[in-house]
Amino acid sequence: MIFSNLILLLYLFRICHTQLGAMSGSPLDVIFDLYYLKLISLDAERQLLSLCLQLKTFWQDPRLSWNMTEFSGLDDIFVAADVLWIPDTQVGNA
Ligand SMILES: *[C@@H]1O[C@H](CO)[C@@H](O)[C@H](O)[C@H]1NC(C)=O
């Protein structure tokens, strides 16, 4: 299985994915899930609320797809985020 992982990684990253940039064509659907984890502080006098939140971002990039039968049935792999093109998103103070 380790060999299949390696072959798949070489296949997916035959071109440097971070340099591909955004996909061209139709607009990309990006889904955001925002989870509340905990209240850190609430300062009513200064109207300041601090929360711990988790933002999960989902999108489909067909450039990272493969045919499972050609890779020993491998249906998922873990890849470091810094080698992927990731939609540029920001969360600001509200
Ligand atoms: C996946 O690969 C197998 C074996 O090469 C092939 O028979 C099948 O048609 C491929 N499936 C797709 C969706 O390309």
TrEMBL record:
Keyword Glycosyltransferase: no
Protein name as it appears in the record: Neurotransmitter-gated ion-channel ligand-binding domain-containing protein
Alphabetical list of Pfam families matching this protein: Neur_chan_LBD (PF02931)
Segments forming domain Neurotransmitter-gated ion-channel ligand-binding: 23-93
Domain of life: Eukaryota
Keywords, comma-separated and alphabetical: Signal
Signal peptide bounds: 1-18
Native source organism of the sequence: Mesorhabditis belari
Cellular compartments per GO CC: membrane
Gene3D superfamilies according to UniProt: Neurotransmitter-gated ion-channel ligand-binding domain
A GO term for molecular function: extracellular ligand-gated monoatomic ion channel activity
InterPro entries, per database record: Neur_chan_lig-bd, Neur_chan_lig-bd_sf
